[in-house]
Design a protein that fits this description.
Shape: elongated
Oligomer: single chain
Number of strands: 0
Largest sheet: none
Radius of gyration: 22 Å
Order of helices and strands: HHHH
Distance between the termini: 31 Å
Strand content: under 5%
Length: 107
């Protein structure tokens, strides 16, 4: 990560820095990594929760029918679903905290 000293920022295009747009132009994704919109990250996390929950539910039904030979795999899938749900809840909490912080900012 390159950190640009404040003294050299005056020489950059778009100076003086007047708002968020100028600051965003200084921030570039790491080489070889494309910037992913937050909406896509959130959508992917939600899809992951739904997918792991469906797998866990199918495994639970198989256990109830007595069709399971490997209970360890069932437990692993159940924990994956739990971790995915916890991650989604933490992501939601982070979003709400960020929103509330923005709303408390003075203009």
């Amino acid at each position: 990560m390159n950190i640009i000293p404040i003294s050299s920022m005056a020489m950059l295009p778009g100076s003086p820095i007047t708002g968020v747009g100028a600051a965003n132009s200084l921030i570039a994704p790491a080489q070889g990594i494309a910037a992913t919109p937050f909406q896509d990250i959130f959508r992917q996390a939600l899809h992951n929760v739904e997918e792991t929950r469906a797998i866990s539910s199918a495994d639970n039904m198989a256990v109830a029918r007595g069709e399971v030979d490997n209970i360890a795999e069932i437990m692993i899938n159940s924990q994956r679903a739990e971790v995915a749900l916890q991650m989604m809840l933490q992501l939601r909490n982070s979003i709400l905290d960020s929103y509330n912080e923005i709303m408390r900012m003075g203009i």
